[in-house]
Design a protein that fits this description.
Keywords: Aminotransferase, Coiled coil, Pyridoxal phosphate, Transferase. Belongs to the class-III pyridoxal-phosphate-dependent aminotransferase family. This is Aminotransferase class-III. GO terms for molecular function: pyridoxal phosphate binding; transaminase activity. Pfam families: Aminotran_3. This protein is α/β, with parallel strands linked by helices and 436 residues long. The chain folds into 2 domains: 139 residues, Aspartate Aminotransferase, domain 1 (Alpha-Beta Complex), CATH 3.90.1150; 270 residues, Aspartate Aminotransferase, domain 2, CATH 3.40.640. The strands form 4 sheets. It has a 7-stranded mixed sheet with strand order 4-12-11-10-7-5-6, sandwiched between helices. A hairpin with a 4-residue loop joins β2 and β3. α3 packs parallel to α9 and α11 crosses α12. Helices cover 37% and strands 18% of the residues. The protein is globular, with a radius of gyration of 22 Å. The two termini are 33 Å apart. It binds pyridoxal-5'-phosphate (PLP). Pyridoxal-5'-phosphate binds next to α4.
Length: 436
């Protein structure tokens, strides 16, 4: 019998696991004192690493001053301050913010708000379109909205009804950056067909602007813009899930800003407070707020810990720090360097199909040398195990026939030599595995 602790997304019997007892900067230490470089930033949230004094100080101060406020009946100045800040860094139509305890919970709320909004404007459309292979969370609504690893949904049904898949703009026949006009046209045609066929059913479209768990697959501009314009033309809500891509991870504060889009709802979490405490947010546009006000409706969503002031204080300190540090410039400069060394050192390895990198979010897509198909899950596990054994934590994405990728999400504070070390380790692991 192993530990009584059941790790999420793991079998009950677990395997041998590395027990982490201390974190310092970008490094983690296990219970035998061994040091690991965390090239995954926790679960893509520890952008400033494990020992940031400004964020820790804000948490300590808030615990001393006031550790909790009833979110239903009492005002919460930290919540107002953070909501104002999120409105100011998203876009001019965003006027309200709901706080949640996670990204999954933010998606639950976005689904409910979308369906209720449609009802408030006098329609009865409850279907929601989502991109094939995207991941939006593991609660019932967000799990139903996710088409990443559909096998894992088996036996938990029935799922929440009403989700429709949109075509994934990715083709194994060509590299992502080199998608031909023809390939793009095919994707656009398929997208249009699904949108037109379901026009009278949809209340919202949720997009993950770069599929993160799916293997760092970017949705190209024309695809995203068409979704945005379709939503505007048909009074369908455009929901942008920025849980993974938000707070500078891909080089803009939010990914939708790269293409000047205006989502009606933006969900976020992870980097919002450097992952030190559970927090998510749902940013909501003025037209939704007005519809609720006009019909005199409350927002029926609550968890006792929503808008906990300690979590909010950590977020305010994190965003303040990002602004003081001009973090987008930092991320973009590090991204350029990282892209160069990844390409210089890895792209010639026979197993590497392509390297996808946006900001500090990277996937090294590994392929079978002869067929160009993704390597098997078992082969991928061998590569990632070697990376672990060489003292570095990274992640994997395996979607049959689409991608087998090593995922690397370095911290914003990683230095060039830290990035060099990641590339060195990954190169060794891939080279050692290429005979398999
Ligand atoms: N949405 C996206 C795009 C995610 O990547 C994730 C988590 O990885 C979620 C939602 C769910 O967030 P959480 O794990 O905080 O519930």
């Amino acid at each position: 019998m192993g530990s009584t602790y059941w790790r999420p997304f793991n079998r009950a019997d677990g395997e041998n696991v590395i027990n982490i007892v201390k974190g310092e900067g970008i490094f983690l230490y296990d219970d035998s004192g061994r040091r690991f470089q965390d090239a995954y930033s926790g679960l893509w949230n520890m952008n400033y690493g494990y020992s940031d004094n400004d964020i820790k100080k804000a948490i300590k101060t808030q615990i001393e001053e006031l550790p909790y406020i009833n979110p239903i009946t009492l005002g919460n100045p930290k919540a107002s301050e953070l909501a104002d800040k999120l409105c100011s860094i998203t876009h001019d139509e965003i006027t309200k913010v709901l706080f949640t305890c996670s990204g999954s919970e933010a998606i639950e709320a976005a689904i409910k708000i979308s369906r209720k909004y449609n009802n408030l404007i006098g329609k009865k459309q409850y279907h929601i379109a989502v991109i094939s292979e995207s991941y939006h969370g593991s609660y019932y609504g967000s799990m139903s909205a996710s088409f990443y690893d559909e096998n894992e949904k088996q036996g938990y049904g029935p799922m929440v009804d009403g989700f429709i898949k949109l075509v994934l703009p990715f083709s194994r026949r060509c590299k992502t950056e080199e998608m031909t006009i023809d390939e793009k046209n095919k994707v656009m045609q398929k997208l249009e067909e699904t949108l037109q066929n379901n026009k009278d059913k949809l209340c919202a479209i949720i997009v993950e602007p770069i599929l993160a768990s799916g293997g760092v697959i970017p949705l190209f501009e024309e695809y995203l813009s068409r979704i945005n314009s379709f939503c505007r033309e048909n009074n369908v809500l455009f929901v942008c899930d920025e849980v993974a891509t938000g707070f500078g991870r891909t080089g803009t504060m939010f990914r939708f800003q790269k293409f000047d889009l205006k989502p009606d709802i933006i969900t976020m979490s992870k980097g919002i407070n450097n992952g030190y405490l559970p927090l998510g947010a749902v940013c909501i546009s003025e037209k939704i707020e007005s519809a609720f006000l006009k019909e005199n409706q409350i927002l029926f969503h609550l968890s006792t810990q929503n808008a906990n002031p300690i979590c909010l204080a950590a977020a305010l300190a994190t965003i303040d720090k990002m602004e003081r540090d001009n973090i987008l410039e930092v991320v973009n400069a590090k991204s350029t360097y990282f892209k160069k060394i990844l390409n210089d050192d890895l792209s010639n390895l026979s197993m590497v199909f392509e390297i996808r990198i946006h900001g500090l979010m990277a996937a090294i897509d590994l392929a079978d040398r002869e067929t160009n198909n993704p390597i098997s899950h078992e082969q991928l596990i061998k590569v990632i195990s070697t990376i672990y054994s060489l003292g570095c934590f990274a992640g994997i994405s395996y979607t049959k026939d689409i991608t087998s990728s090593i995922l690397i999400f370095p911290q914003y504070i990683a230095t060039e030599s830290d990035l060099d070390n990641i590339v060195k380790i990954v190169k060794t692991a891939i080279s050692n595995s290429s005979g398999i």
